[in-house]
Amino acid sequence: MASATAAGSPPGPAAPKSRRSVTGTRRAVAALFLLPALVLLGALVLYPIGYSVVRSLYDSSGDQFAGFDNYKALFTDDGIRTALKNNVIWVVFAPTVSTALGLVFAVLTERVRWGTAFKLVVFMPMAISMLAAGIIFRLVYDQDPDKGVANAVWVGVHDSFAQSSAFPKAHPGRESPLVGQDGAFVTKEPVRAGSPVALPMVGVAPDKLPGDVKRAAAARPEPGKVTGTVWQDFTRGKGVGRLGAPDPAEVGYAGMRVEAVKDGRVVASAEAAGDGTFTLPASADGARLRLPADNFKEPYNGVDWLGPALVTPAIIGSYVWMWAGFAMVLIAAGLAGVPRELLEQARVDGASEWQVFRKVTVPLLAPVLAVVAVTLMINVLKVFDLVYIIAPGSSQDDANVLALELYRKGFSEGRPGVASAIAVFLLLLVIPVMLFNIRRLRREGRR
Q: Helices (DSSP H) in 109-180: which residue ranges?
């Protein structure tokens, strides 16, 4: 009877739902602990974003409503358009090159014993700030080969194949028989065999002379030949030395090329010895002597890394130097989780190492590569320090990016409305990349 009553009785009221979270903590307590974080999030993130949106709709003074005029400037102002173009270059190349280098480093260092040490060295630039890296690369890219490492190496390689002149500043001294002609120097009168020719020069610093120079000597006459001396006609001290004649303290221009020219045609040539003397055959009789312009060409001074044409690629190079280590570490962590059986099976099936890398390793690392690339894309959209420090004032306009243009518009030009519009535009550029990353992470979590 009791059981029948129980079976026929209406169900009782449902038990009250638990007010605890999945971790067993009361929701009120959880909300209380989250409150400080929510307050900081609102004060440091949500409020600045909202204020920037509102401020972007007002003029520079902040009193007059400007509508979308500040946003129109994003596509009409030359500085902002250059910055936008450079940001596209940054987004395309900087993450791609950094990720590719990180992938190569991560794969290759697995095959060497000293791979850990190599990874430490490559990752080390991440330990310094962007400001410090900017200062370092401002010196690396210095135009002077005596200061800039990049140009020191470049000039060294160039001079190994095309030696520069030792006499770039040389020119005829007083009472010289030479006159200028299209960068070269030519004797005023034809020369005669058996009569030595004096070709005094000045203008080369003593420490810039070739290492094989010797004390200048007066040329001796030789029958049927044209002889002469080309030398540094300068002696330290007031009233010391004779013009137009070698003195004991003066040195010859070793290696100076001398040509004999008749009717516009070179009939003979010679190089000066260490003491500056030279000898030309009888065919030079009656010719005019010429010191070719090649003797005086300026030394190769390297590449203008921070000039308008190369400043953006140069700064991207410094960014890659810093962030390739970051990409390498993340990719190496992903590579450690790749099943080795798949790689070995591909090799057993006859695949080459390049095919294993391209057909197996890279597809398995695709999620990690996507994380690295997307993270670097977000990072380069905000790049500021490197451009501000490395680019000199003469080419900063050519290296301009949106974050730098935001700073310049807001603080240098006094246009906070346009600066706020740039900030909002940057936020809109970052949001799709962030949403893509969040969706990808959720898909990974459901697998």
A: 115-123, 130-140, 149-161
